[in-house]
Amino acid sequence: MNALDDLPPLRDVIATHGLVARKSLGQNFLLDLNLTAKIARAAGVLANADVLEIGPGPGGLTRSLLAEGARRVLAIERDRRCIPALAEIARACPGRLEIVNADALQFDPREILTPPVKVTANLPYNVGTELLTRWLSAPEWPPFWQSLTLMFQREVAERIVAGPGSKSYGRLSILAGWRSQARIVMEVPARAFTPQPKVNSAVVHVEAMPAPRFPADAEALGHVVATAFRHRRKMLRSSLKGLAPDIEDRLCMADIRPTDRPETVDIERFCALSEILGTG
Hints:
Blueprint: H1 2-5, H2 10-17, E1 29-30, H3 33-42, E2 50-54, H4 60-67, E3 72-77, H5 83-92, E4 97-101, E5 117-122, H6 128-136, E6 147-153, H7 154-161, H8 171-179, E7 180-188, E8 193-194, E9 201-208, H9 218-230, H10 236-239, H11 247-253, H12 267-277
Parallel strand pairs: 2-3, 2-5, 3-4, 5-6
Antiparallel strand pairs: 1-8, 6-9, 7-9
């Protein structure tokens, strides 16, 4: 703990290593260690868990995860410039921080993680939604992770936790609500980041459920929901007509009116529809 306290301020780390945030990498650094500590605590008890962090940058959240007692942190960082800064943290916590210089979209960390696993990250804006969708759509369930504590743009966070009838309700809402419990645990203003983005952010905490709420195939459900919300203002008989020639009959079998629009259909009926469409 003392060794972490002896590390230089994050602004000095950024200056020393020339870590100018790159828009192409979706980088916005969070330098307030009070905020990173709150995010780490939002992930729950870390003492007996491996923590997967994506896009640690100069390591603000990394420090807080270690300070909160994480058994081990696996940090996946694409930007090679950040590796020396993260290595300084690793030296302060021998054996507790492993750094991998890789693209999180291309790297599978499961073989080097020991359950239970908690994913905690200030996700780069340009990969956050894609990673979340992958984690929620895993064909095997329960997944390799126990929980996800993730920073998103506020608008994306609202989509994850939205319910039917909301303008934010959509594919992410259904994937999150089908097999997990998701809630917004804190808001982070744009001014907290360097450089300052144009939008506020929020941290979402997602707990994996032991089993899905309703029967469905993950790939089939994802395809149906993505197709339905591609044209969210259209009636489902129109937006889904390419999935089956008798789509109106199949919608009715799932207790969905052909004239319904996707934002009015709850998770249970989307699951039922994906099962019906999967029967051929």
